[in-house]
Amino acid sequence: MRPVAIVQHDKTQRPGVLLSCLDEWGVPSTIVMPEEGDRVPRRARDFGGIVLLGSNRSVNDALRWIDEELRLLRDAAAAGVPLLGHCFGAQLMARSMGAQVSRNAWPNIGWSRLLTTGVGRRLFPSASVASFNWHYETFAIPHGARRLLYGPYCLNKGFSIGPHLAFQCHFEVTEAIVREWCRESEAELDRARGPSVQTRVEILSRLDANLPELHRTARRVYGHWVSSLDRRPSLQRPLDRVPA
What we know:
By secondary structure, the protein is of the alpha/beta class. It is 31% helix and 23% strand.
């Protein structure tokens, strides 16, 4: 089986639960860190799937590695190599598919419940799911894609198109990752303002209540995505293979 390429954009935004699931399910993976000097792969076909993690950058920044990743994503879409995007990674996917990425009305930082659409209900069995968020920008839904999730302060929180899944949130985080982000971004949290911004204390106080559900959702999402690896699923029925 060809490995999954995990594109990690900084040292703290790690694959967390995703990597644990891939290891448990026997899916080989390799981590690529462009900002640490790794070369962005040129051929999507060398991988069974491609995962894109978060970043403190904007996808609209004029950076060489962003342009190289966009080319890789377009190559993956053309070749039918499944993509999975988290936050910045989802924004990269949207932009590679011709959709706009722009400033959200409010920063979205902390825990929230996201609502599922009719299509999204085929992947998420309940009317809402727990999510962890940390973003300032948002994507438009690409042409041909379907919205899966939406929130009260950010309309587009997830989309699917063919085998590809993109989420404007973080299902991959562990307790250690959340604590590290809060510790390293203490000054940012003090500056951030808005109805969808939580304080460091609020975020950490809700860890125990939210992480179990978040991780159940993560396993469901990742299990579905893994089921599409090394296959060419129909564009009309991308959510039919949802694991129990």
